[in-house]
């Protein structure tokens, strides 16, 4: 067998590698890979898999491109904001390699369609960012008998693992039989992420995939941990083989109920909270007030005080004039001390990013007011600083 003439020049730098050669390139050309998620992990994985010459790539993602994605999701750009991520990624890949065969799916992966969507592909990449989909993907690849190259990244850290590889490779449930509490699982929007970290993990996912296809992968199961601030930054943990009591991949097969009978969202603690909507809940009149009330107080002679309960790092990004930063954790530990620093009959406005942490702080301070002799009027802003931007000052930064 041979390659099209131009491919010898396109892929020559990797074909001359020992252990790779023409045979390796032909294996890549004949392979098919499904990448679930075209975000921070999926973009670099797709970019390098496409550039390496993987014959067929599926891009599965139902989200649309937003401005906040561009810091790390390198296949998207300002011109594709509002476009489906899967279509935006495909457009970028075709510019790099027009000969790619791309299957673009703009539908959400669910228990109903997972098996039919993933069945045509040799290897599956988990480039998602939520726990229900991780369990769904793991169960799906076990049912299909395919390897899963899984990545995760958050803040300054990331991890990588290949699941269900070979006859004894563990699945995701082998390592994590039960999901962590919903309250313990944060998102990049809440906790932040350094874009380079997602790039490193996504590239590593592409690398592991290529190694599996070409036959250079060490089948021994390991978990690779990465810390951008660690020395050294990489740490590898040896894993045990398939867990004998795993309900998904152990013998006898079929212990786990079918995918369609499993509610993965409820299994992982229910739907993820919509913090924007929760921050906009009105609450008790006089307790939760719209941004206009704070704006009116700032333009009146009545005494008032603004306490911003965000972490100091976020307060340093942007803040309301005249506000004081006291992080939520400090208010929870010493509410009485906060009230002592306020004048009686003074309006105390509490504000945060979306209007959620300020609710918690306000309730604690109101309890302290009721228990003491303070007459401070504690209020918190509905919708937080994001509502301030939309309703009062469109020039105030949103992040």
Automatic annotation (TrEMBL):
GO terms for biological process: protein urmylation; tRNA wobble position uridine thiolation. ATP binds at residues 40, 61, 68-72, 85, 129-130. It is found in: Cytoplasm, Cytosol. GO terms for cellular component: cytosol. Its cofactor is Zn(2+). Residues 300-397 form the Rhodanese domain. InterPro entries: MOCS3/Uba4, Rhodanese-like_dom, Rhodanese-like_dom_sf, ThiF/MoeB/HesA, ThiF_NAD_FAD-bd, Ubiquitin-activating_enz. Its main location: cytoplasm. Binds 1 zinc ion per subunit. PROSITE patterns: RHODANESE_3. Zn(2+) binds at residues 171, 174, 246, 249. Pathway: tRNA modification; 5-methoxycarbonylmethyl-2-thiouridine-tRNA biosynthesis. One of its GO terms (molecular function) is metal ion binding. The active site is at residues 188, 352. In the N-terminal section; belongs to the HesA/MoeB/ThiF family. UBA4 subfamily. This is Rhodanese domain-containing protein. It comes from Pholiota conissans. The gene is UBA4.
């Amino acid at each position: 067998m041979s390659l099209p003439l131009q491919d010898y020049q396109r892929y020559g730098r990797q074909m001359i590698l020992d252990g790779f050669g023409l045979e390796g390139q032909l294996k890549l050309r004949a392979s098919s890979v499904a990448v679930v998620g075209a975000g921070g992990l999926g973009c670099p994985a797709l970019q390098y898999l496409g550039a390496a010459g993987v014959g067929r790539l599926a891009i599965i993602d139902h989200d649309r491109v937003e401005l906040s994605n561009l810091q790390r999701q390198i296949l998207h750009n300002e011109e594709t904001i509002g476009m489906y991520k899967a279509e935006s990624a495909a457009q970028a890949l075709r510019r790099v390699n027009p000969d790619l065969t791309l299957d673009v799916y703009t539908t959400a992966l669910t228990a109903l369609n997972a098996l039919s969507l993933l069945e045509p592909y040799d290897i599956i990449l988990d480039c998602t960012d939520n726990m229900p989909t991780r369990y769904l993907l793991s169960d799906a690849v076990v049912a299909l008998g395919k390897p899963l190259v899984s990545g995760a990244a958050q803040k300054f850290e990331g991890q990588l693992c290949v699941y269900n590889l070979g006859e004894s490779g563990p699945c995701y449930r082998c390592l994590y039989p039960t999901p962590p509490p919903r309250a313990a699982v944060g998102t990049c929007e809440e906790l932040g992420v350094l874009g380079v970290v997602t790039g490193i993990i996504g590239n590593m996912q592409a690398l592991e995939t290529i190694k599996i296809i070409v036959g250079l992968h060490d089948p021994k199961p390991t978990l690779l941990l990465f810390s951008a601030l660690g020395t050294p930054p990489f740490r590898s943990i040896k894993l045990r083989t398939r867990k004998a009591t795993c309900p998904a991949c152990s013998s006898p097969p079929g212990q786990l109920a079918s995918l369609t009978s499993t509610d993965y969202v409820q299994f992982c603690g229910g739907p993820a909270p919509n913090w924007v909507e929760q921050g906009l809940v009105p609450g008790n009149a006089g307790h939760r007030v719209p941004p206009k009330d704070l704006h009116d107080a700032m333009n009146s002679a009545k005494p008032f005080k603004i306490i911003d309960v965000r972490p100091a790092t976020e307060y340093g990004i942007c803040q309301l004039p005249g506000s004081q930063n006291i992080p939520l954790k400090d208010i929870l530990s010493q509410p009485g001390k906060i009230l002592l620093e306020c004048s009686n009959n003074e309006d105390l406005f509490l504000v945060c990013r979306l209007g959620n942490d300020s609710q918690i702080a306000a309730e604690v301070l109101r309890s302290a007011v009721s228990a003491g002799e303070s007459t401070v009027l504690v209020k918190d802003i509905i919708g937080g600083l994001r509502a301030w931007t939309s309703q009062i000052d469109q020039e105030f930064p949103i992040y």
